[in-house]
Specification:
The complex is a heterotetramer, with 2 copies of chain A and 2 copies of chain C. Chain A contains 4 helices and 6 strands; from the N terminus they run αβαβββααββ. By secondary structure, chain A is an alpha+beta fold. Chain A has one domain: hypothetical protein PF0899 fold (2-Layer Sandwich), CATH 3.30.2320.80. The longest helix of chain A is centred in the N-terminal third of the chain and has 18 residues. The mean pLDDT of chain A is 95. Chain C is globular. Chain C is built from 10 helices and 11 strands. In chain C, strand 6 and strand 7 form a beta hairpin. Chain C has a single domain, classed as Rossmann fold (3-Layer(aba) Sandwich). Classes of the chains: A alpha+beta, C alpha/beta. Chains in contact: A-C, A-D, B-C, B-D, C-D. Chains B and D meet through helix 1, helix 3, helix 4 and strand 6 of B and strand 1, helix 1, helix 4 and helix 5 of D. Strand 6 of chain A pairs antiparallel with strand 1 of chain C. The complex binds adenosine-5'-diphosphate (2 copies), magnesium ion (4 copies), nickel (II) ion (2 copies) and zinc ion (2 copies). The site of one nickel (II) ion has 4 residues of chain A, from loops. One magnesium ion binds next to helix 3 of chain B.
Amino acid sequence: MHEWALAEGVIKTAVEKAKESKMKSIDEIDLKIGEMQDIELDIFKFALDELMKEYGMKAKINIRIQKTKFKCNVCNYEWHFDEFELTEDEKEFVHFLPESIFSHARCPKCGSQYFEIVEGRGVWIEAIRGKK
Amino acid sequence: MHEWALAEGVIKTAVEKAKESKMKSIDEIDLKIGEMQDIELDIFKFALDELMKEYGMKAKINIRIQKTKFKCNVCNYEWHFDEFELTEDEKEFVHFLPESIFSHARCPKCGSQYFEIVEGRGVWIEAIRGKK
Amino acid sequence: MIDARLEIIEERLKRIKRIVAVSSGKGGVGKSMVSATMAMALSKKYKVGLLDLDFYGPSTHIIMNAGDKPAEKNGLIPPLVENIKFMSIIYFTEDKAAPLKGKDIINAIIELLAITIWDELDFLIIDMPPGMGEEVMAILKFMKEAEFIVVTTPSILSWETVKKLLLFLKNNRCKILGIVENMVMEHSIKNEIEKFGRYLGAIKFDASIEKFIGNANKIMESDFGKDVEKIAMKI
Amino acid sequence: MIDARLEIIEERLKRIKRIVAVSSGKGGVGKSMVSATMAMALSKKYKVGLLDLDFYGPSTHIIMNAGDKPAEKNGLIPPLVENIKFMSIIYFTEDKAAPLKGKDIINAIIELLAITIWDELDFLIIDMPPGMGEEVMAILKFMKEAEFIVVTTPSILSWETVKKLLLFLKNNRCKILGIVENMVMEHSIKNEIEKFGRYLGAIKFDASIEKFIGNANKIMESDFGKDVEKIAMKI
Ligand SMILES: Nc1ncnc2c1ncn2[C@@H]1O[C@H](COP(=O)(O)OP(=O)(O)O)[C@@H](O)[C@H]1O
Ligand SMILES: Nc1ncnc2c1ncn2[C@@H]1O[C@H](COP(=O)(O)OP(=O)(O)O)[C@@H](O)[C@H]1O
Ligand SMILES: [Mg+2]
Ligand SMILES: [Mg+2]
Ligand SMILES: [Mg+2]
Ligand SMILES: [Mg+2]
Ligand code: NI
Ligand code: NI
Ligand SMILES: [Zn+2]
Ligand SMILES: [Zn+2]
C-alpha cells in the first residue's frame, strides 16, 4: 500500500515537468520501475488513476518493469534478483527500501556483501508527452 | 616526482594486460590523464622510458590530458579546474590527491562544497596495441 | 530520465515546522543519546518526529526501546514511540549489518523521505551518523531549512573533528543552532567552543546513564536527561 | 579503459608482512587511540607503518603529534613519526574538512595506496573510520590478507553496532584477530563478547589520558598505554 506514495511522486513530477515545459495537457507518461521495488501493479495503477482525477488529468501511463542487475565487486559475477533466496519478510523489506538488500543478501557466487545494484531500483519517468 | 609511482602503474598494468591477451610485444599505449593530477609531463615521460627499459620493452606512448569537469549538486553549475582559485600549496595537494579538492574549493557559483568531479582525475589506459 | 521520488520529498516535509539535525562529524560523542532525549523532552509540549539516519550504527531505537512497526497507508506511517513519530532503517534491516556504499546511502535516504508520512510536526529531530558524507549532503539538498545542533566532547580528538564540520556547515551556509558539550567531567572547553559559535550548554559525564538506556522515564529523570532538557528549551 | 593505479597497489603492499585494521563500526570507542598506541608499542620491536583512513575525523596525527611531511621520491615516502612510517589525509587537506562522498573516498584510498612507498614493514596498522562503508570495502578488495581488530566499549550502544560489523566481517570471510573492550569501568561485557570471538583484552577507562594526547612517551607510560601494550603482544 505504500505504492500510493510512489504514485504521488509520479503524478507530482509529471505535473511539475509539464508546467516547466509549458504543456497544456499530459497525454502519455512512460514509466520505468525497478524490479526491486516489487510494486503491486493493481494498487499502483489504481493510485495513479485516483491521483490523476485529483489533478484533473487523464493520461495513458505505460509501465515497464526494469529487470535487476547486480554485480559483485569482489568476484565480478553478475546476476538477477531471482537468484537471491529471500524470505517473505526480507522481500517486503526490499519492497520498502531496495537498499536493504545489502543486509539480507550476498553474492551468490563468492558470498561477498560488497556488490552493486547496477540497475533495477527506483521509479523513473522516461518520457512525458502532451499538447503545448 | 611522485610521477614515477604513477608511471609504474601504467607500465605494470600494460605488461599485465598484454600477458592476459597473449601479446608478444607492446607497440603502442594510449593514455588518458586527468588534468587534476597535474602531471609533470617531462618527468612522467622520463619515468615511463626508464621503466620500459627495465621491462625490456619499447612502446610508443600517446598521452592525452583529459580536461576536468565539475558539477555542483546544489545549483547544477558546471565548470573547469581553472575556475578554482587555488594557492600553490593547494595545487600541490590536489596533484598528490585529487580528492583533496573538496577541502580546498567550493562551487564558484553558489559556494557549496557538495559538488562532483565529473571527469578529470586518474590515470587511464585507453588502449594497448601490439603483436600477438 | 527523471527520478519520480524527488518531487514528492518537499510535499512530505512541508508540514514540518522545524527540522533539527543533531550532528558532530565525530562518532561516540552522544549524538544518539542527545537526539533521542531531546525528542522526548520536546514531545512533552510539541508534536515531534525522530529520524535515525545512522544506517551503520542505528541507536535511537535502543535508547527509546522502540517496538511497533510502521503501518502501510498511502506510504509508511511511522509508529509512535514515547509519543514520537519514529523512523529508522532497523525496520528494514532488523539486527543485520547495513553495508551501504555512498550512492546507496543517498538512494536509501531519498526512498525513506519519499515514502514516510510524517504529517504535521513541530519538530523533526534527525540523529546523524558521524562523518561528513552523503547523509550531510542529503540534508543540504533536501532539507535546506534544517538547523544543525553540533555535539562535541571536551576531548581534543573530538573537537578537532567537530571544528571541521562547523567550518563545512558555515561554508555551505547552513543554519547552526549551536554547540553542545557532552560528557563534561572536570575539564570543559566552553571558552574555546564559544569562539566558534553559540554554546548551547554542557551535559555532565553521567556514568549511570548506561543502565537507563531503553527506559525513557529513567533517562528523563537522570542528570543526563535534565541537562538535555535545559538545552532543548533553548532551541 | 583501465585504471592504471590498481595494478600497482599489490606491488606497493607486497613487502608488508601483516596488515592490521583497527575497526569497530561504532565511532568514539577509541579506535584511533588504540591504533596509534598499538603502533607505538609494536615499533619497539618491529618495523611499523600507520595509515589513518578516517578522512572525516583523522586523529592519529594529533595523538602522536606528527610534524614532518611526506617526501617525494618515486612516490610519496611517509615521514617517520615516533619511528613509525605515517600516512594521513591531513598531509593534503591540512585542518580543513574533507567532505568526500562515497566514490571519492574509494578513489582517494586507491590514490594513496598507489603512491605511498611503505617499503618493508612487519606491521601496517590501519586506523579505520566508523561505519561499514567504502573504507571497509577497500580493505576487502585491496588487502585481502588484512586482519581485523574490532574495538567496542561495554555500552550496549557500542556493542549492538560492533556485533553488526563482526557479522559483516564473518559473512565476508575476513580474518578477525579479536575484540578489544575499551573504556571499561566497573561494568564489563567480556562474557558476552566471548560468544562472538576472541577477547583480546580490556582497556580501563583512564580519565587522565586526555592530557597525554600528543606525547608519545607519556601515553606509553600511562595505564592506557600499558593495557594496549599487553594487547599488542598478543597479536
Ligand atoms: N553524558 C554522558 N555521560 C556518560 N556517557 C554518555 C553520555 N552521553 C553519551 N554517553 C555514552 O557514550 C556512548 C556514545 O553515545 P552515542 O549517543 O551512541 O554517541 P553517537 O551517537 O555520537 O555515536 C554511549 O555508550 C552512551 O551511552
Ligand atoms: N581507555 C580510555 N579511557 C578514557 N578515554 C578514552 C579511552 N580510550 C579513548 N578515550 C577517549 O575517547 C575518545 C574517542 O577516542 P578515539 O580514539 O578518538 O575513538 P575513535 O577513533 O573510535 O573515534 C577520545 O576523546 C579519547 O581520548
Ligand atoms: Mg520502495
Ligand atoms: Mg596524484
Ligand atoms: Mg549515534
Ligand atoms: Mg578515530
Ligand atoms: Ni507497498
Ligand atoms: Ni609529483
Ligand atoms: Zn562475488
Ligand atoms: Zn553550486
